């Protein structure tokens, strides 16, 4: 409870480079703040202050490596309640995990950018086609020909779906890119109302072709 080291695993010497030149061969009875980063001493005190909590911290290890420390209090019942005897700290080398996580984030970022570029072209050309059909081709169609009118309506709807789904995928890619910002603490949440009717309508529009092809209908009942 006074911050003195009572027991330790010899592996800690290697983690913090304390075994070099004979230094740190006898940690028992020495104060934690004399040998380890100050943050580790703070972690031990925090754990003793609240015995019901487990505290974690990333600490610098020797050789530019990173460790994760987990601290919790040690209690003993004396009949009148629990007495804090001190704290136990478990330290694990997570350098490789951090490197893999960074590689994963870089991969997601690269793939997302590579996907967004062609998707922007798809949306752009779809909008051009939509504009040409609306202004040039559709007005010249014979309105009395129900077959052509039905086909025109279907084509217009399909292009609308291509554009809306393309824009939805673009937003999804942006959300994936936000993961990297979230991990670096740079993301800013934007709170705004969402219409569930619009969410359902968008879902139906994107899956319409699946049930149309099978001759199925869709009933929608969304409370106001």
Protein topology:
Elements: H1 11-16, H2 32-35, H3 38-49, E1 55-61, E2 65-77, E3 82-93, H4 95-137, H5 146-183, H6 196-212
Antiparallel strand pairs: 1-2, 2-3
Helix pairs in contact: 4-5
What does this structure look like?
This protein is 54% helix and 14% strand. It is α+β, with helices and mostly antiparallel strands and 224 residues long. The protein is built from six helices and three strands; from the N terminus they run H-H-H-E-E-E-H-H-H. The radius of gyration is 31 Å and the shape is elongated.
Number of E-state strands: 3
Structural class based on helices, strands and sheet pairing:
alpha+beta
Mean pLDDT: 85
How far from one another are the termini? 60 Å
Overall radius of gyration: 31 Å
The general outline is elongated
Helix proportion range: 40-55%
Oligomer: single chain
Main beta sheet: strand number and arrangement?
3 strands, antiparallel
**Number of H/I helices:** 6
| Strand residue percentage | 5-15%
The H/E string reads HHHEEEHHH
Q: Which regions contain 5 or more consecutive residues with pLDDT less than 50?
A: 20-24
Strand order of the largest sheet: 1-2-3
Key terms:
224 residues, 6 helices, 54% helix, 3 strands, alpha+beta, elongated
């Amino acid at each position: 409870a006074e911050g003195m080291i009572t027991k330790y695993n010899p592996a800690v010497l290697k983690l913090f480079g304390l075994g070099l030149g004979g230094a740190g061969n006898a940690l028992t009875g020495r104060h934690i703040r004399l040998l380890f980063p100050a943050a580790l001493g703070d972690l031990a005190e925090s754990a003793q202050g609240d015995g019901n909590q487990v505290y974690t911290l990333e600490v610098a290890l020797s050789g530019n490596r990173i460790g994760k420390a987990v601290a919790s209090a040690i209690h003993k019942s004396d009949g009148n309640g629990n007495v804090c005897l001190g704290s136990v700290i478990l330290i694990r080398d997570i350098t490789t995990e951090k490197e893999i996580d960074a590689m994963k984030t870089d991969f997601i970022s690269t793939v997302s950018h590579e996907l967004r570029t062609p998707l922007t072209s798809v949306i752009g050309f779809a909008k051009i086609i939509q504009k040409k059909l609306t202004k040039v081709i559709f007005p010249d169609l014979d309105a009395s020909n129900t077959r052509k009118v039905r086909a025109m309506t279907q084509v217009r709807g399909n292009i609308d779906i291509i554009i809306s789904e393309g824009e939805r995928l673009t937003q999804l890619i942006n959300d994936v890119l936000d993961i990297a910002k979230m991990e670096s603490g740079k993301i800013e949440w934007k709170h705004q109302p969402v219409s569930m009717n619009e969410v359902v309508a968008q879902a139906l529009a994107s899956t319409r072709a699946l049930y149309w092809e099978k001759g199925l209908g869709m009933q929608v009942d969304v409370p106001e």
